[in-house]
Amino acid sequence: MSANAFTAVVEAMQALLKNRSGLQDVFVGPLDDSGAREADLVLFLYRITVDAELRNVGHELPATQGANAAANLIEGAMPLQLHFLLTAGNRDTGGELAALGKLGRAIQIFNDTSVISGPYLGPDPVHISFDPLSSEELSRIWSLFPTVNFRTSVAYLATPVWIDPASMEEPAPRVVDDRHGYRARAL
């Protein structure tokens, strides 16, 4: 993915929630933003970390020319994990019971569609998984927004989100012919 990977993942998650839940007001941004006040759901990217397991693997793109074509490997790409907070709407969007119903539907959608791909993401699938937070971790996130009343929230992890190098070197062509006839000598 390119530098717009964060935007692509967030747009894909937002579209998934809107298309499958019927909710049109899925706000993306911080909880104290004015747009979050009337939203049915709020999706907030609160942390970005490096995926340590994939750090030295390289970003492998799917083969594009037939089943036997080798996959392209992008060296130096950075695999990231995006940490999201998904929050129920406030009492102005239908009351606590209605907000919990909307949050439950969103959880169901992410459970049913744990891998997202498509026009936003190109050839790279991104896995969405529930990210259990302790009460202490959740309260730390909410403490960033002292003017907002606490609302029921859950955390999600989207991974891997690849940021490819800005300039990639083209690999040298493969050697397919040994015209000089060099042979290794036995020692």
Describe the overall structure.
By secondary structure, this protein is an alpha+beta fold. The chain contains 4 helices and 8 strands, in the order αβαββββαββαβ. It has a 6-stranded mixed β-sheet with strand order 1-2-5-8-7-6. Strands 3-4 form a two-stranded antiparallel sheet. The chain is elongated.
Quick overview:
With about 190 residues, the chain is α+β, with helices and mostly antiparallel strands. The protein has helices spanning about 5-20, 35, 95-110, 135-140, and strands spanning about 25-30, 40-50, 60, 70-75, 80-90, 115-120, 120-130, 155-165.
Read across the widest sheet, the strand sequence of neighbours is 1-2-5-8-7-6
| Low-pLDDT windows of residues | none
How would you state the average pLDDT, rounded? 82
The CATH class is identified as Alpha Beta
Q: What name does CATH use for the topology? A: STM4215-like
Helix and strand pattern: HEHEEEEHEEHE
Helix share, percent:
25-40%
How much strand?
25-35%
What CATH architecture do you see? 2-Layer Sandwich
Largest sheet: 6 strands, mixed
Label the overall shape. Answer: elongated
Structural class: alpha+beta
